[in-house]
Amino acid sequence: MSLRNCSIAFENRPNGVFYCGETVTGTVNLLLESNKICNALMLKVSGEAKCRWSEKRGAGKKRRKVHFVGNQTYFKSYNNLMSEQHMQTGGSDLLAGNHKFNFTFLLPPDLPSSCEGNYGYVRYTAKATLKRPFKRNLYYIISFTVLSHVDLNVMPNVKLPMVIESMTNFYSLISKQGTLHMTVKLPYSGFVSGQCIPVICELKNNSKIKVESVKVVLIKTIIFTATSPYTKQRKQILKVSRCLSSGAERGEEKIVELPLSVPPLPPTSFTTSSVIEVKYDIKVTAVVSGIRGNLKSVTPIIIGTIPVQTNRQINTEQSTSSHNPSNSLPSYDDLLPPSYEEVLVEKRLEESYEEWDHSNEFSPKYPVYSFDANEKKGK
Questions:
Q1: Domain 6-147, what fold?
Q2: How far apart are CA 337 and CA 339, in angstroms?
Q3: Phi/psi of residue 317, each to 5°?
Q4: Fewer CB within 10 Å, N- or C-terminus of the chain?
């Protein structure tokens, strides 16, 4: 039974966003209209991953549904917030009026980031339960966001430029129609929410087929792993951002730049989770005329929580200080901190949800950088 006139507030992070290893402080605020006989006010803080979906098996009379389930608990913390100052003689009554109970707990250092998907979630909750003898317990529960640290500057090879080449040959019924070459260039392979990815696409259309357009899509893939009744995976693939440009005429060589914006997103999964994993790819498609197959290129990228330091930032710092290997990368202390924005959680999509219970849907918040504001500040 829900506990009325109750709230849980985080004092050190009012937005409810925390990073792994941080200490969380807050209060449970309770307003009682009358005295309550109770044994304890328990605060349970937990982190867990769950996934579930159903698939049909067999045919005819033997056709049935198989329910796949996966669970993983990262931590659980219990604390009785009741103290003698809130109790009458005998320690069994909680007096009417306003009550404020302080709490503190430490998040483990290696937690996966909060994530919500069609078939499951990684979710962190705080639940206050008023335990009453001979009556139903009353409870109040909220969810909060936990983020893993994904600093793109400490990852090997992330700062290296990426060049991906692909080609295809076109044929008619009687002869070869030529070759289409496509080269996709990225300045590096790691990005953050709020950033605009400059995707450079070089087309060499040495064919008789027109390239109608070039499409760039940022693809988010959530991989759910169930362990019961046996191990099985299911994927949710989302196109979270896209950009479109004109193509190339027959025999034309062309370079196009497609600015691909990064919306609020959970960082790429690096912390071990046996239930949910998040990955990202950039897919570039040269759309050709007719019924021929398009030329496609798929490149994996990393979404982090701290952006790559650009050459512009490095040059700015080096121009104001002597060259030193330890100073070759600037500090982020002077950059504007990110805002934290809710990710768009997809609503029910026909059979996508099936048996999954979304009665307690939650929209996590992720760091979003304003690069325009940072550049203005540096001027």
A1: Immunoglobulin-like (2.60.40)
A2: 7
A3: -70, -40
A4: C
CB contact set of 311 (below 8 Å; sequence gap of 6+): none
Task: List every span in the chain annotated with CATH 2.60.40.640.
Answer: 6-147, 152-378
Q: What pairs with residue 102 in β-bridges?
A: 27
CA distance 121 to 47: 11
- Tell me the C-alpha distance between 370 and 194, whole Å: 6
CA–CA gap between residue 5 and residue 8 (Å, rounded): 11
Distance, in Å, from the CA atom of 357 to the CA atom of 371, rounded to the nearest integer, reads 38
pLDDT tens for each residue of 323-378:
333 333 334 444 578 899 987 655 443 344 444 444 467 899 999 998 765 554 44
**How many angstroms from the chain centroid is the CA of residue 228?**
25
When the candidates are 2.60.40.640, 1.10.260.40, 3.40.50.11270, 1.10.10.10, the CATH number that belongs to 152-378 is: 2.60.40.640
Please give the Cα distance from 112 to 74 (Å, whole number): 9
Say if CB 56 and CB 63 are below 8 A apart: yes
Chain position carrying tokens 């001027």: 379
User: What values do phi and psi take at 165, rounded to 5?
Assistant: -110, 140
Cβ contact 67:355 at 8 Å: yes
Q: Is 318 exposed, middle or buried (0-12, 13-18, 19+ CB in 10 A)?
A: middle
| 286 in Cβ contact with 294 (< 8 Å) | yes
Task: Give the global pTM.
Answer: 0.84
- For 21-70, the pLDDT digits (tens) are 999 999 999 888 888 788 888 999 999 999 999 998 888 877 888 999 99
How many Cβ atoms from other residues are within 10 Å of residue 358's Cβ? 13
